[in-house]
Write a structure and sequence with these properties.
three-stranded antiparallel β-sheet; mainly beta
């Protein structure tokens, strides 16, 4: 049954909405975890000489 098909009583349900995006701008999505505390609250930042580094927003650990 699709989101706009009538239900068993003939009434139509409201269209289903997708949940909001879980990741926030600037954060890395996926399975990246802090090697220090294991938290998934990791942001990607611009490192030295234009490289990519990561910072844990839970404990402050920085790595690249």
């Amino acid at each position: 049954m699709s989101a706009t098909d009538p239900g068993p009583d003939g009434a139509q349900d409201a269209p289903r909405r997708l949940p909001p995006r879980l990741e926030r701008p600037g954060e890395v999505s996926g399975n990246l975890q802090c090697p220090s505390c294991g938290s998934a609250n990791v942001a990607q930042v611009l490192g030295d000489n234009g490289g990519v580094s990561y910072v844990c927003t839970a404990c402050g650990h920085i790595w690249s």
